[in-house]
Design goal:
By secondary structure, this protein is of the alpha+beta class. The chain has helices spanning 74-86, 108-123, 130-140, 188-194, 205-215, 233-239, 241-252, 276-291, and strands at residues 4-6, 13-15, 18-30, 36-48, 50-56, 59-63, 91-97, 152-156, 161-164, 171-177, 229-230, 259-260, 267-272, 295-300. A 5-stranded mixed β-sheet has the order 1-2-5-7-6, with helices on one face. A 5-stranded mixed β-sheet has the order 9-8-4-3-11. Strands 12-13-10-14 form a 4-stranded antiparallel β-sheet, covered by helices on one side. 46% of the residues are buried. The model has no long low-confidence stretch (mean pLDDT 95). 30% of the residues lie in helices and 27% in strands. The structure holds cytidine-5'-monophosphate.
Length: 308
């Protein structure tokens, strides 16, 4: 399914923002501006929300999960930002159908914000170059620029400096959302950064190595988990004890390994895909995780830009 369609109404633009995984997520240092520098390999996966953008006199935003439909939503903030920057007098109606788990480490809110920028750029006929949209995207959040491109990129800076990589060979991503006794706090990401200890920091070498393997086309078959790393793994397990339990249940069900997705609390594993036997294995693992009571998502790694 492509990331953008014209809807039944000629003027409606339908976008399908997708989730991402950080195959590596190395926090390499603290910055004077309060952010952290990181080194990461981002990979988009085919787990998607749906954003409808249509003409309107005023700017309006709604969500099928009403508690997400307020002015704090990144879609709303993206729409206000691009409207102000473009000096557009007309509005638009944006409706979001949420499928990507929220506050889960999958970048769904950032993906939605990127889709809002792209949708409004098209609706209002702005035709802005990618660099101009990316500058707005970076003001909305460190992860947002990635979702304008993708599907695979190496990220530096606070996550907004991107170097495209060739798409990962086809894999199945199996994502598990641990059932938390308490919902994640609204400022989960900030708290996890603040909880990092000296030995959670990394030097960026894993990201460099993985990027080289992807660029050389050498990342084939079952991915060696020692190539992957995530600076938040310890802090997330401390903050959410359910993460460690869910990881053990994934391994017991036959996952080859389990890593934290972004700043969590979701976990993921990757299995090679494309051959019938590989596809059967991935489906069977997802089914067995679901049968054991874990909230489980099965998605493919994307091979083309999510919003193209
Ligand atoms: O950029 P974003 O709004 O997604 O970041 C949320 C919070 O996460 C920031 O306020 C900051 O505390 C932390 N953060 C950071 N370094 C980054 C990205 C985020 O410290 N590279």
């Amino acid at each position: 399914m492509s990331g953008t369609d014209r809807g039944a109404d000629e003027k409606e633009i339908v976008l399908r923002p997708c989730a991402k995984l950080n195959l590596t997520l190395e926090v390499v240092g603290r910055r004077p501006d309060g952010y952290h520098d990181l080194a990461s390999v981002f990979q988009a996966i085919d787990l998607r929300d749906l954003l409808r953008v249509s003409p309107g006199d005023d700017l309006r935003f709604s969500c099928d999960q009403p508690e997400l439909g307020g002015e704090g939503n990144l879609v709303w903030r993206a729409a206000r930002l691009i409207q102000a920057e473009a000096g557009v007098a007309t509005g638009a109606t944006l409706h979001l159908a949420k499928r990507i788990p929220v506050a889960a480490g999958l970048g769904g809110g950032s993906a939605d914000a990127a889709a809002a920028l792209v949708g409004l750029d098209r609706l209002w006929g702005l035709g802005w170059p990618r660099a101009r949209l990316a500058a707005l995207a970076a003001r909305l959040g460190s992860d947002v620029p990635f979702f304008l491109d993708g599907p695979t990129a190496r990220a530096g800076g606070r996550g907004e400096q991107l170097t495209p990589l060739p798409a990962l060979p086809a894999h199945w991503a199996i994502v598990v959302r641990p059932a938390l006794r308490h919902p994640p706090p609204a400022d989960k990401t900030r708290r996890l950064y603040a909880a990092l200890r000296a030995d959670d920091y990394r030097d960026g070498r894993s990201t460099a190595r993985l990027s080289e393997l992807i660029a050389a086309g050498l990342l084939v078959g079952q991915i060696d988990p020692s190539l992957l790393t995530n600076s938040f793994e310890r802090a997330a397990r401390d903050l959410f004890p359910e993460v460690g339990e869910a990881a053990e249940r994934m391994l017991a069900a036959g996952a080859p390994w389990s890593h934290l997705a972004g700043s969590g609390p979701c976990l993921y594993t990757l299995l090679p895909g494309g051959r019938a036997s590989e596809d059967r294995r991935a489906l069977a693992l997802a089914e067995s995780l679901r049968a054991s009571g874990l909230e489980t998502y099965l998605a493919r790694t994307l091979a083309s830009p999510p919003l193209a």
